Amino acid sequence: xxxxxxxxxxxxxxxxxxxxxxxxxxxxxxxxxxxxxxxxxxxxxxxxxxxxxxxxxxxxxxxxxxxxxxxxxxxxxxxxxxxxxxxxxxxxxxxxxxxxxxxxxxxxxxxxxxxxxxxxxxxxxxxxxxxxxxxxxxxxxxxxxxxxxxxxxxxxxxxxxxxxxxxxxxxxxxxxxxxxxxxxxxxxxxxxxxxxxxxxxxxxxxxxxxxxxxxxxxxxxxxxxxxxxxxxxxxxxxxxxxxxxxxxxxxxxxx
Length: 255
Fold this sequence. Notes:
alpha/beta
């Protein structure tokens, strides 16, 4: 079977209206390319924060999902959101079919925190839901968010659960990976880039998975924290964007 995937390496900030404009531009690209599903970065709608205007983000979500539905584009949408069922905030990738049907969400599982006891950081801000897979355009897929993939030992109080391997065993053939990584142009940022890229490629091989990944490109004068594009189950890049600034891609997976 085939799955045509698009990705948007776009700027993500706390300005929800700006985020919506970037996502809608990406939806237009994906529609013109005939994509089945579009992936956006971590927090791309709400901003990467648990502190957002709930009503504003709700209206933004309605606008983006309606536009994607009208364009016939499925979504793997990165956003933080308070779920009405339990009132808890989740850092999510939300999955939608091309007809707008909502399939559910993956919540960031390896939330970042200090190694202190107790840890500090987003680990205290976001709830975590059980790992699951989704069927989109006939393909079994999973979602991961940023550190879920690479389990950075400097900011991961939990043990690495090897989520790519778990998703592979659950039947996923494609992972949509939404990223919003920090960087400052220092040598450490360059080392982190290498760690991120090698992790992506090795985990694709280990799980026999396609990995579709996109990063936030804000600030646009710096290289992103990780590459954006598509990696095949042999660990090869088959689509890849520029390393800096806004960029889109589209690629057909042959599975």
